[in-house]
Amino acid sequence: MNPVNPGNPASDARPSRRELRRRELLADIGAAVRALTVAEGQPAVTMAAVAARLGVTAPALYRYAPQGRGGLLDLGCASVAHEVSAALRDHRASLGPDPLDQAVGICRAFRRWSLDHRAEFALLFAHPADHLNQLTLRSDDDTDGGVRAEVIEAVHDLAWVFEETMLRLWAARAFDVPADGTLPAALRTSLTGYRDEVLTRARAAGIAVDSIPVAAISLLLQCWVRVYGLISLETFGHLAHIGGDPEPLFESVLEELTRFAGAAPTRTPGPEATPEATATTTTAATPEA
């Protein structure tokens, strides 16, 4: 499945050797950016520093990141997004078949990963929203060496982890929501296209969901905004003023999700194994000057 457009048959075509090498190079650049960010912070990410890690000259990098430092940070963002997606999928697979357990479990796992990888979280989610919007709007422009497509694919891939999980939850436990006609017209209009796109991806992924009300999409998005909002505030240190452990507040949001799904609130878990993402240690393919 192609996370950007899983319903596109062209996406299943076998990539050429040249394309595979290009993807490998972009992944190596992203991994180098991530390593620099973790070790020294985002200000340390420069063309010269990344080139030194890869054993090439800075001008050689411009063949793969023509935008300069901004392109490097984009590739670092993509590297982290792919890693988190894989870690969450692995963790979800370990949680058993109950879609509610999976939905709650990956939210907990995402919080744990975020707190354990604060530099990577900032690299991924402190990306300016208007920049990512421009990437999406101009996704058919390949003059950037493939960076734009790489970032879009990675960000959509991460979003799909949560979307897929919530769709499977809806398919198993369709909960009561208001009629779509009761929603404000502007909200209904803004979410209808997104709902249709999600359903298209669901069919391509073999999820047995023929339809889902816009009101359910709105409710699930509100849950996600609260989950992500709390994780973001805690990860960036903006909940320190409450003077206590933020976990009970986070668990209260998850309990609300279980109530939506018609189940009893889940208990706060004790220490558990969490997905531990590790940096890739493969030998970097070297861009030729």
Automatic annotation (TrEMBL):
Region (Disordered), start-end ranges: 262-289
Keywords: DNA-binding, Transcription, Transcription regulation
InterPro entries from the UniProt entry: Homeodomain-like_sf, HTH_TetR, MT1864/Rv1816-like_C, Tet_transcr_reg_TetR-rel_C_sf
Domain HTH-type transcriptional regulator MT1864/Rv1816-like C-terminal: 106-257
Record-annotated HTH tetR-type domain positions: 34-65
Protein name listed in UniProt: AcrR family transcriptional regulator
